[in-house]
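Hi all, long-time lurker, first post. I run a small reading group and we've been trying to get comfortable going from sequence to structure in the token notation. Rather than ask abstract questions, I figured I'd post a concrete chain and ask someone more experienced to write out its structure so we can walk through it together at our next meeting. Sequence below, copied exactly:
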Amino acid sequence: MKLTYRTHVENLGWRKWVEAGQLSGTVGKGLRIEAIEIKFDDLNGLDLNIAYKAHVENIGWQDVVTNGSTAGTTGEGLRLEALMISLFGADANKYSIWYRVHIQNIGWLQWCKDGGVAGTEGQALRAEGLQILILEKGKNLYRSEDPGAVMNTVYRSHVENIGWKAWFRNGQASGTVGQGLRLEAVEIKLTETQDYNLGIRYRSHVENLGWMDWVHDGQTSGTVGQSLRLEAIEIQLTGFDASKFKVMYRGHIENSGWTDWVENGARLGTTGLALRAEAISVIVIRDIDSINENISNEIVNKAPYIQVWAVDFPISEYLIHDIRSRERVTEMQLTEELNKVASFQFKINPKHKYYHDLMKMRTVIRVFAINTNKERELLFEGRILEDDRNFYNEKMVVCEGELAFLLDTIQRPAVYESQPIEQWLTAILNNHNLNVTQDKHIYMGIVTKLDNTYDDLRKNDYINTFELMKTTLLDNIGGIITIEHIGGLRFLDFRESMGRVNTQVIRFARNLLNYQSNESANGLITALIPVGKTIDGIKVNIESVNDGSDYIYNEEAVNLYGWIFGYQEWNDIEDPQRLLERGIDHLNNLVNLKINLELTALDLSLVNVDIQKINVGDSVRCISNPHGIDEFFLVTKKVRNFQDPAKDKLILGDASAGVTQQMYDDKQYLLKKIAAINNDRKAWIEYGNYPFDLTGVNVVFQREHTMPPVVNVSILKNIDDVGGGTETAKDIVVTTDLVIQRNDEGLILYTGCSLKFTGTLSDPSNWYVSVQIIGTYV
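-- Answer (accepted) --
Happy to help. Here is the structure in token form:
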């Protein structure tokens, strides 16, 4: 059986026929699909037909067409917005047709099947890309026992000054963030409920009105046209199958930001505090009790074990490791580190059933800890990056974590001004999602970084998404980024800290196996000169808000280590008070010695599931009397060896680089900086006249030059006779020494020159020195 289809695209016309699973249309070009045709080329005797219809701009739903006929329009400039596809015939009950579309401003939508609506209605959004698959009945794009199976949930919000926003779905944020606009009403509904008897109801708490009546399945809750804020909401599932699912929702609330997720009728928001709700996210997922229903062997001990699955998006998922099965891998090791891409590696034997099915950059690996028959924890998700074969054809497979998906997209040059961090992150994640397939989507989660009101100018050139987050946020203002999984979707959270204090204690002679400490003064300062944006040739400083002083200091650190000055420039800050606040935060991070503890420790949760597992980002108490420590430390890195837990390693304390690594990083930074300077260097010529002094003349350049400038010197005297002009001294030899300085980034700058003279002049007071400087600057 061969399924083929093609699309008619704006400016391009009919595209070539493609086969099942391939892309028809375009992605990232902003071109509308205008029509589609779908057919079977070879049915091998099957009685099977295909029917489909299109939702078209200004027309709505057209009539059903079949077997290669055109659905949509050509030559009329109308966008196709949604479509429905189904099978019919004597053999139709043996197969399901799966399809999805790429939508303007949204990206790839969820897969739907057998007559479900793929696309949007009433939102004026064009369909841009299309994929279609045909599978045997009972086979699913997602495993039926997957706890993250999502019931498609769509919702929209009515916002102050804006009106009804577009429909969003499955955990996406609806409303506004950082604009101070109130939600006034919401509508929520479920689509593609398949064979489940399931509905949704909800009610709102509204300014001056209190709790309103329950409404359901797409009806309006709240008010429209009355300028009243929606303050709280409760959402519940209805129907015979409601117990098989749970509805989870969270909101963005005035003055407090995003809330945690609540579920199944819990109150979201506030009452009696006059605080507006500003945005909402809703998702409906399988209840946790359906997790791991495929496991038949009861777990009788309390130690969790490891399952490893391989996924080839979008249609294959297979188990490659389970201690109760014949298929196993060895030498499994998981490495996690704050704000870095996690890695997982394992060795697979050439006799393994799926040895030849693992593909670099395509196969996704998921690692689970199975705690009980109805509870499992996702430890790692990422793609295969490389595989090395040894003499026996065994593969050592190395995988990179899902944060690496952000390396796949390039952010175009953009300027973001006066935007809170959350609004900025949402924008760049939306750009990422528009350019990758759905399996690599990452949605905006919660921002709890205290500096979320950060309103300075942000701009970027061409740069990948992960590097942009790192250089703009993590390297600049700190914080922690993590991926949170809700209902099979990924949400990126940006936090001040993880805020978790682990109840497990690392103790000498119990689970502390080895200890190594490093204490470094690298980067230590006790006083800081912060400067900001250059305005009218002068850099903003803090004198006006700091009692006339341009520096700040930490008294305790000065008493302990003496005066050690540092300098930090923030080119995007022009407010002295904000510059002072940023400087204090920066100084506080640099006044202490950096302590690294490298521990080889046994995480006791590996032998008893009732003991809290140690995670990266946790604060953990470490007690070792022989080493004189009893303190809480931040877990910055964790290495887990699943076959040999004695090789596990925890890194606690400051995860700063050592001296050698720091020198390397500094060198790499300087090389990048020099490359940037070479690309942005400008020519500069300047002139100056100075009184002649036989002992020498010091010249300060008007600009700091990045390459040695050419200095031309003449000794001149004005001629007062008729006709005027100048006379040049011929018996003076000039020696030029350039003045060289290093800036705070370590770059060499040429800031002036010293002129020395040998020889004699009659009446030196009548002569002057004329200097011409030819050079380059940035």
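A couple of things your group might point at:
Helices lie at 421-433, 465-477, 555-561, 576-588, 659-679.
The two ends are 64 Å apart (CA to CA).
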